[in-house]
Records
---
Amino acid sequence: MNTHFDERLDGGQPGRDQSEVLADLQQALPGMTLLHREEDLRPFECDGLSAYRALPMLVALPETLEQVETLLKRCRALGVPVVTRGAGTGLSGGAMPLSHGVLLVLSRFNRILEIDPEARTARVQPGVRNLAISEAASPYGLYYAPDPSSQIACSIGGNVAENAGGVHCLKYGLTVHNVIKVEVLTIEGEHMTLGSDALDAPGFDLLALFTGSEGMLGVVTEITVKLLPKPETAKVLMASFDDIEKAGNAVGAIIAAGIIPGGLEMMDNLAIRAAEDFIGAGYPVEAEAILLCELDGVEADVDDDCQTVRRVLEKAGATDIQQARDEAERALFWAGRKNAFPAVGRMSPDYYCMDGTIPRRELARVLKGIGDLGEAYGLRVANVFHAGDGNMHPLILFDANQPGEFERAEELGGRILELCVEVGGTITGEHGVGREKIHQMCVQFSPGELTTFRAAKRAFDPDELLNPGKNIPTPARCSEFRLTKSAGDAPAPTRAPESQG
Amino acid sequence: MNTHFDERLDGGQPGRDQSEVLADLQQALPGMTLLHREEDLRPFECDGLSAYRALPMLVALPETLEQVETLLKRCRALGVPVVTRGAGTGLSGGAMPLSHGVLLVLSRFNRILEIDPEARTARVQPGVRNLAISEAASPYGLYYAPDPSSQIACSIGGNVAENAGGVHCLKYGLTVHNVIKVEVLTIEGEHMTLGSDALDAPGFDLLALFTGSEGMLGVVTEITVKLLPKPETAKVLMASFDDIEKAGNAVGAIIAAGIIPGGLEMMDNLAIRAAEDFIGAGYPVEAEAILLCELDGVEADVDDDCQTVRRVLEKAGATDIQQARDEAERALFWAGRKNAFPAVGRMSPDYYCMDGTIPRRELARVLKGIGDLGEAYGLRVANVFHAGDGNMHPLILFDANQPGEFERAEELGGRILELCVEVGGTITGEHGVGREKIHQMCVQFSPGELTTFRAAKRAFDPDELLNPGKNIPTPARCSEFRLTKSAGDAPAPTRAPESQG
């Protein structure tokens, strides 16, 4: 449990006893599963970012919409905060429980309600796994495009909450670009439909506002997503570089050539060696950097694009370019990339994964900056990331058992995110702010901008009971952060952060 | 002037004299052009929907950001409403002035600040014309995709305010999908940056919330848009049908075949005859409906798609399919479509253009429903619209000089929009709500949903001074609408509506 983090700064403050809330909810919801014993609560103490933990006061596992509605109304009446959780694979602590709050788990809402092949949409409950949508759509030749690394396990409701990304988001967009309608319940238990089955909905775009709002505005109870036709073919090129900045510049050059690859990923030497050692993907271990560029679409088009990309890569200084000869080799090339995080994890007792996003033109400069910062802090940093999106995932290697090393890693991570902001980028690309980056929000945004965020939050949740302490910092939290930062003692989790997505 | 429309129901109520506000603003902003004489105000009395008119109290034509900031602060202090206007080509009365408000005209903010071919973005001021962006990007082989019919004249700031669409939005998205960052000023004169140059921005998606907010949340002062590479080639097919429902079903079948055309437009017999009579586009005047299907991309791909679409059209019962033989014929096919509104206008003293959007699968049913409703009301309705998007533009023909005919037209229009809502659609696709459809918002949304919209509005604009009476109805307005509707006397503009976009 993260004792340095003072929950009193976040609203939704402690006030009710567990026994009191339990009795109230048991009476109002006699049929609903409510967990309250410590051993039952333990599995829910963190999401995928296990460094940030707390036992929830209670865990609620509703099965019907009416139960969710009643639960929200009761929590509102009692002034008890509610944290909503999907599959718990998030990487920013967005679904971390509150010790004085109810954890609302939507895993029982796991039905695919409708696949409409003509409209190319799927209507699903929030607990449905991301990959299950594509599986259900597959008989119609369709799939759901956004593909977080955790897609086998993560839930679509969590994807909406975090505006999740993935390898294919460069071409096919983030979650927000692939959701057309959601049903939600407000903290008042009021039902709303945001978006529509039609092209556009009148009024403000509350659907986009909800997507990525990290459970702070309401509870998503049903989701309609777009489905896309499966590409006829996909081919992958692997280019080696003797200089990481050249690889960074090649990324911009590919896009500038008018090509949007299905995926465009970069790995630096440390990541290449780690992945090769772990997977044996056939990566060039002497290269300073590789780019993996996947092109998908109809056969003729893809062949054309492969030629164009090859020329761009050569001109950008690639020392070697290989095209996967068949599906097996293509899968192998990707296996190296997809297992790069655990592969790097094997090289070091601990690692810390960042998620900054920058304009593509700044890739070379920021990669160099990260290298310089790593040297200055005496820590190794592996880079493996969605280069086409400018979505960096620097992995800082450290050993939490070495005194002071975790603090150095955390400070280095903060410096890297600040570098991203400096060049016009942002502190998160696809993992969300959650609890992890709540302080960096005070850096990213002005006090006036944060006030507007909070006003938007209060428009939906006047008492700030939905997931307080995540995503949008309170003024009190930013003040405390600035004080401790100027005193050279930023608040830190007591355990080392880790991350595997 | 629209006398039936009681502005007292909308907030931002009358209170200050023109002379008082003028004196205050002249003192605070000695260098800024302020128009106040009736003859100077007259050109600003309406936007593209000329049925809704009012003289503004004052027109402000600032040239600098500082002037806009000061103006907003002064209006806030005085409690004077502000309506922001771009080029004034909107079709829903969104920029209609208020007699007790300042009209803030951004036409002098007309500079293209930066074209970045590598990032494929353009950074522009809000008064820049839509087409001027594509012209400036053209030397780099790039263009800005959303293309309202008014693109030669409409401003990008207005496009953002209305979330404008166009023929190519089926494939390339609405304005919201093509804007990555905006700079805004709040009514408090506070500066905010929404979105970023990077893939994603943390916190709530206020950029999407602002897009389409019709000037109710703040003033957009700078816009960064995505640019796309110009397609290598574009080809257009024209398919004839002897039955409008078959044409409607063909639309869904094309999309279901895995093809997203660059444009997919439908015209019914009345529209075909009108356009052919006006333009001589070579349209089949005996057909009950035609589809125009444009395919764009690389040559080989487009040829493949043309073959696929041909097969789908034949199977859907097309009686004839022609492919434009060259660029000249392609331009001619489109000229008929693009001039269909004025062409229909030649057939009737007046017409009223609707903008409902429906799920594609409901096209055939809704087209039949519109036909039945037209017969029941004894009025002709021409259909010419973005079929691929499900974005209908029924044009109701009438003669305002015939007693009662306008009222019948307006009632028919309302019935058509209600039909769109019934089948899961919405009351607007690309023209916005503005003043025109403010009452239909009371039909589209529940009181709880409207309360949430208004709470979001107040988060940005607590005194509701920004464009009151547009887009989001007040509870008072919906109550009045329900009362007058149940009394069989919906509030109506005194002049006949017309529309040319």
Note: The domain at 7-105 of chain B is CATH 3.30.43.10 (Uridine Diphospho-n-acetylenolpyruvylglucosamine Reductase; domain 2).
---
Amino acid sequence: MATVPLLSDEEASAEALAVFDDIRATRGTDYVNNFWRALAHDPARLRATWERLKVVMGPGSLDPLVKELIYIAVSTANGCEYCVHSHTAAARAKGMTPAQHGELLAVIGMAMQTNGIVTGLQVPVDDSFRA
Amino acid sequence: MATVPLLSDEEASAEALAVFDDIRATRGTDYVNNFWRALAHDPARLRATWERLKVVMGPGSLDPLVKELIYIAVSTANGCEYCVHSHTAAARAKGMTPAQHGELLAVIGMAMQTNGIVTGLQVPVDDSFRA
Amino acid sequence: MATVPLLSDEEASAEALAVFDDIRATRGTDYVNNFWRALAHDPARLRATWERLKVVMGPGSLDPLVKELIYIAVSTANGCEYCVHSHTAAARAKGMTPAQHGELLAVIGMAMQTNGIVTGLQVPVDDSFRA
Amino acid sequence: MATVPLLSDEEASAEALAVFDDIRATRGTDYVNNFWRALAHDPARLRATWERLKVVMGPGSLDPLVKELIYIAVSTANGCEYCVHSHTAAARAKGMTPAQHGELLAVIGMAMQTNGIVTGLQVPVDDSFRA
Amino acid sequence: MATVPLLSDEEASAEALAVFDDIRATRGTDYVNNFWRALAHDPARLRATWERLKVVMGPGSLDPLVKELIYIAVSTANGCEYCVHSHTAAARAKGMTPAQHGELLAVIGMAMQTNGIVTGLQVPVDDSFRA
Amino acid sequence: MATVPLLSDEEASAEALAVFDDIRATRGTDYVNNFWRALAHDPARLRATWERLKVVMGPGSLDPLVKELIYIAVSTANGCEYCVHSHTAAARAKGMTPAQHGELLAVIGMAMQTNGIVTGLQVPVDDSFRA
């Protein structure tokens, strides 16, 4: 259970509902996931988070699917169960193949492994990296 | 300073030197960075790590540059200074533009932010994500 | 399920029960939460942890409610589900309002976001901070 | 060294300089710290981050000093050296006393300790916390 | 639920089944735990992970039980619920006593606590440690 | 630089000096490392931390060297540079060999790797582990 109630459409304020409607229109689905329903207690913060997410995760110099993979990587390193599930679903909706998912996990594992070894060894940064 | 000495070519064993040589040949540079010199105390582990890295970070269903971005994301979430520096350098060598770097950081920041909010809210995973 | 059994009052030793009783008296409730029941296998450690907690979380130069907010912040960053739930409940019992909870989460999210961006950028510490 | 150059006033764009000026005016100091100079490569992101920070860290139902303490707590759990330094300086500027700093660290330490023990024990969340 | 299906013996490829069989033979049990069934979608990665695990966790200059304790410590700090459960079970199978388990948790808690305090204080590394 | 001054023997209070003296006597060295000098601003907390450390890290059902290895593992996963250096030095002082250090790092790396893969896969805990 969440530490706050998840607000249904009926319980959400008009301001929050307007954000839900934009989420629905942007994603082309009627479904509004739990994260937004938990945020809806504070409509201003709900809107700010959603507006920022649209900008950050939208098309740019990186592909939206690549952005989802990066999101999964961060969420995995931080151990955020919800975020891993929601962004794995989002990546699949954007075309992530099983092979890509497998390679993503392999890179995450490799990075975690060397992060640990490097930190245990306290390897000093090479001058050549600083440019 | 590292918790172990970094081995120069002169100090490394023949077995470790052979890995250094493969690193040089694979990357087309004479430079062997500190991580490998710290690992060289145990040539078998040095080789296993390098061989695995070549497989994981090489071409596949994900582009090598995308893999570097994922590596940076994990290393950032884990706070590994050396890894952030070395893989940012590697990503640049593979063509990462300043705009891509900026978007990478924006996605990392967004993921970190929502990871924190989701965990603080303990949002339950939507059934629709479980498929 | 826990990695050790949770001890009921009947299963706890006399030494552990004495700590349970102090928890009850201090909090003015008959309820002893699972954390203490899991710790009760080692009554000396149970007592040391409880005695320390009373000192650290009690009144001082910081308000007990503020201390709970700090506790939630750390627990969130560390991804400790149990701790987030137990200290959110404790903060509510000490008077945390929904608005304060919302602002706590906003600060946690902001800090997580900039932690990630700063680490990805490896921003050097300003001399002016070192005083 | 940062992974990007820190932009001086001379190197920053007009758009970035406008944010620098707002930082100066808001804080009543001519000094603009390194974080903003590293972000200045992308003026839109610089502005979005600064505007959001002003809202989140400003007065509300939580005191601005309390918000700084929460920020330090998160930054400490995430191991962000820069953030610990910058927000410890900010907390002092907002009146944090040595005694408050000491208690903050004690709460952080206590939370870290029980986060570890709880996770190692996998203590199940009490039903009574879910409300 | 996992983000990928767990493969039964019937669903696994011949290559994956061969790894399952080696897991069974090595451990002297018919049971293959969920981690390997989730990895089985990519038999090459399944084999590489299992082969590496056998080498790393096998006898050497550190006792296999000590290695399990270290594994639990890392998994706890990273908040990996599955890993804490699986390696606590493995440590018990290798002879971990309740007293050893209690001391392990006490050391983890002590380390977490001082990690937090040291990071909050930004204590500089003593020259005497660098040798 | 630390976020608080490190107190010399001359600057420390009589109460803090008494703890310094016990550290010296216990370790058989005149050297008091920076962590204790940073904690010395609050003599009560200094004493509580030192007394607890002596109990937790002293002989018991786990060997003091094994406890240092566990401490390094946690500190590495948490990215605490100071703690990695100080406890690596402590482990060496208690007899850690280069081969043991290498195996410790290999186990840390393996655990980090599988922590990441397991979290990315969200592998459900096997019923057989819950006992």
Note: Chain C has a mean pLDDT of 97.
